[in-house]
Design goal:
Blueprint (H helix, E strand, L loop, with lengths): L7 H11 L4 H8 L3 H9 L6 H11 L3 H4 L26 E12 L3 E2 L6 E6 L6 E7 L12 E6 L8 E6 L2 E10 L2 E5 L8 E3 L7 E11 L4
Helix pairs in contact: 2-3
Length: 218
């Protein structure tokens, strides 16, 4: 079973205590507002990619650890090879193929042709990624233009976010199974859920589980 992530807010608190730093000092050092730092520490909001990088840099911890993953807290640039070691530790980065765009709203045409690659830390176990289009998943902190990393699998657990092919189109939604239907639920109240029953279910295919996202929104 995959180990549950630690809340980002808890990791920020731990790193602040470790560095003997208070929130106002972190705000000054990162250039982020005190209110933003307070919301990150309280857990009301999670920092997006740019803010996460700034916080991790100042606190001298890795972004992946700060996000709550079970990885070493040291930043990659701080890792040194010991005098007794014959080899330098390599920076573990992988390239994930990008398939195209995925709808965060109404489904859009699915293009599964691999066009480019996105670099990401090796601790993220993804098979491919997609660029989000639309605002239906903003409640899950996934915004228009974000890149979502997907683990290929034909079924996901109830309530998990997945890339779903509907006929020749693809969308990103939470998946809910019921005895007589399948519901694809947005994370934005202005969007109605997609409900599929009977033979309609034959047109649905789970492409994979969303396991991480990359955003430039602070």
């Amino acid at each position: 079973m995959e180990k549950a992530k630690v809340p980002c807010s808890e990791r920020i608190k731990e790193a602040l205590a470790m560095r003997e730093m208070i929130q106002s000092e972190l705000a000054t050092a990162t250039g982020l507002g005190r209110n933003a730092i307070s919301q990150y520490v309280s857990g009301k909001f999670e920092p997006k990619q740019t803010a996460l990088y700034k916080i991790a840099k100042v606190l001298d911890v890795s972004e992946a650890w700060l996000m709550g993953y079970d990885v070493p807290k040291e930043r990659l640039e701080n890792l040194k090879f010991s005098s007794s070691s014959a080899e330098i530790l390599s920076i573990r980065v992988q390239k994930i193929p990008m398939l195209g765009e995925i709808a965060c709203g109404e489904p859009i045409f699915c293009n599964e042709e691999r066009e480019s690659y996105v670099a990401i830390g090796a601790e993220i176990k993804a098979d491919f990624c997609l660029k989000c289009k639309g605002d239906s998943m903003i409640g899950a902190r996934i915004y228009d233009g974000d890149i979502v990393f997907i683990s290929s699998q034909s079924i996901v657990d109830n309530g998990e976010i997945a890339a779903v092919i509907i006929g020749d189109e693809v969308t990103l939604k939470r998946v809910f199974y019921y005895p007589d239907k399948l519901v694809l639920q947005a994370e934005n109240p202005k969007y109605q859920p997609f409900v599929y029953v009977g033979e309609e279910l034959n047109s649905i295919r789970i492409l994979g589980k969303a396991i991480a996202f990359q955003s430039d929104v602070i």
